[in-house]
Specification:
The protein is α+β, with helices and mostly antiparallel strands. Helices cover 33% and strands 31% of the residues. It has helices at residues 21-38, 44-54, 98-112, 127-133, and strands at residues 11-15, 60-65, 68-78, 81-89, 117-122, 137-141, 145-150. A seven-stranded mixed β-sheet has the order 1-2-3-4-5-7-6, with helices on both faces. Strand 2 and strand 3 (68-78) form a beta hairpin. Helix 1 packs across helix 2. The protein is globular, with a radius of gyration of 15 Å.
Length: 153
């Protein structure tokens, strides 16, 4: 099946709840592991604890497909912009247009406020291509992270 042209699954966003933190921490570890291992930075405990330490339900949404946990995303206000953080999708659902569909919804919110959106990805991450397809450009980078920005449409 050609997943590049398949229709994304029906999905919804709901507000995150405190009870979601462990599912998100596990998903984060699963999604980031290949890139963190490639960069020599994977630590079983640290990858989960960093999420736990920064988790806030205030700006985090849970992505559900067929009423089941499929991922999460945080869109946090910052100085006259938004930070897109913790955007993780179950690997079994990646490559089917779901990430693009969720991202388009979030970017429309930011565009309505004429606000840029910023994020960072790990060096070499396939996620960078997704963001670049949606208008993000490299703002800066270091040996571990690439910082991207998208100006409002």
């Amino acid at each position: 099946m050609d997943t590049t042209t398949s229709k994304p699954a029906a999905w919804t966003l709901r507000a995150a709840e405190p009870a979601d933190v462990e599912a998100i921490a596990e998903l984060r570890a699963r999604v980031l592991r290949p890139d963190l291992e490639r960069l020599g930075r994977f630590d079983e405990h640290r990858v989960r604890q960093r999420l736990r330490d920064s988790f806030s339900t205030q700006h985090t949404s849970i992505i559900e497909v067929d009423n089941a946990f499929a991922g999460c995303v945080t869109l946090r206000p910052a100085e006259q912009s938004w930070w897109l953080e913790h955007f993780y999708l179950d690997p079994d659902l990646q490559g089917r247009g779901l990430g693009s569909a969720v991202l388009r919804t979030l970017l429309a919110r930011a565009d309505a406020e004429a606000a840029p959106v910023r994020l960072n990805v790990l060096q070499g991450s396939a996620a960078q291509r997704l963001y670049e397809r949606h208008g993000f450009t490299v703002e800066s980078q270091d040996p571990i992270d690439v910082y991207l920005v998208r100006q409002p449409a």
